[in-house]
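Researcher: Structure for this, please.
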Amino acid sequence: MSFDVNTSTPHVSLTNRVLRRGPLEAAATTIIAVGVVMLMQPFFLTLYSWSFAVTLFGTVMFTIVSKVRE
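Model: Predicted structure, token format:
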């Protein structure tokens, strides 16, 4: 962590703000929800076909992200 020259407050980089548990868990939860919606829609067979893979990806992502630092 570096300090901002003008304000002497800690400067948090973009990667430190993005690679945190909160935003990544929210993204993983959203991916899981999209997969479930894809599973329940009756109109497009392609979306239904990919729904399990999307839900599985979101679940694996959530499991990995839960190990990331706060």
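Researcher: Any notable elements?
Model: The longest helix spans residues 45-65. The helical segments are 14-18, 21-40, 45-65.
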